[in-house]
Amino acid sequence: MRRTLLAIMLGLVAGLGTVLGGCALTRLPNVPLTLTGSPATPPILGPLDGTAAVASRADWESRRVPRLKTLFQSQIYGAMPAPARVDILSRVVLQAPAKGPIGTIERITLAVSLDRPGPWPGGRPVVDMILITPKGKGPFPIIAGGTFCGNDALFPKTPEPQTLKVRTTNMPLPPECGGGLPAFMVEAIFGKNANSPPWEAIARHGYALASWHPGDVVPDVPGIAEPYLAALTPDGTPPDQRTGAIAAWAWTLSRMLDVLAADPRIDPEHMLLWGHSRHGKAALLAAAFDPRPVAVWALQSGTGGASLDRDEVGEPIGAITASFPHWFAPVYATTAARPDARLLDQHQLIGLLAPRSVLVGTGRRDQWGDPHGSFRALMGADPVYRLYGLPGFAQTSLTKPAEVGPLAFYMRPGLHGIHSQDWAQALAFFDRTVPKLPPTAPNISLKP
Ligand code: GCU
């Protein structure tokens, strides 16, 4: 009895804390609607680390791209784990076709084989991927990405899947998940789609959706993550460049694409990635190292994602590496106080995705995510896209995304979170930029 009372008290305190935190958030200042800050440096086609400026598209691809990939690993994210074989352990249909746009909801449990056993139950990472396909034969374009609180939180409203096993693993969730806060409060503060993409509307729009919890591979908890990161770090990697969790989650994205590309219901030419915040960082990094994703939507990815580091606006490197030391290579923290030691900035990460499409979403009250720094990162990547004869980033408005070209940006009102208008922006962008998609019914709104 005493223990239950204590648990209730703790839940209430946590809840109250988050409510008060949430109220405080709503008072965060709006960032200006006119762009501030200086251009991204170094110029993306300019000299880099003692090597000559880029002379052509071929020079970019053969010389600069490999150099940038090496530097992003050795300076920021740590060594990217080696590609690995994926075994499908089980496929379970959680929901068969019923009324509405959904075809099937399936749980695909897969294991990734490593060259040495690690701290996972069974010695290797096991991931439960939820695959939601629209009605019809397909093959369907697919939107893939990890969610913050995992599969349990994916089906908040619909009772059926709740009774079915949406996950088989038992890896710890981030402390913020399950803070005893009722779902309606999470939605009020962090948005209607904070934990669950609008999967019915996505299917109605003609896309399949794949979702999993990146914590299945590396738990998103400082300290606890280390043995998993050590197990994923390639042999011979200097200790200060050990694989970070963002790199591990990016690698996981690619392993998921290995499975999806082999699925006859999925169109391997139209695989798209999305991610919010920390998972937006991972989605951008995944596409930088994997040529298959044809488009990426990074929502509020901030530091280590789409926003520039050098402008010292938003989350400082010192803060992110102190709060989340497992996310990056230890060396990244050492550059916090030495901007001169940094050869890179995030416009170069976006440049590695060229000529593929990138949508960056931000919120006016999410200064921490540095919306202006993200806009200037797209401006900084623009010259590479022009090397491909593409229109680059011609957008001038901070709020209205470009209607032409592979790069676009929007800043909606409000806080750090995922709202239906974010998904409406993303689906409109995917439809516009991923050319050979089958025609979809025009202007389907996401509003129920
Ligand atoms: C924290 C962190 C950010 C991150 C965010 C998130 O706020 O400081 O870098 O993007 O969490 O993932 O929600």
Automatic annotation (TrEMBL):
Q: Which domain of life is it from?
A: Bacteria
Indicate whether Transit peptide appears among the record's keywords. no
**Keyword terms, alphabetized:** Hydrolase, Serine esterase, Signal
The record places domain 4-O-methyl-glucuronoyl methylesterase-like at 240-389
Please name the GO terms that the record assigns under molecular function: carboxylic ester hydrolase activity
- This chain belongs to which protein, by name? Multidomain esterase
Q: Which SUPFAM superfamilies match?
A: alpha/beta-Hydrolases
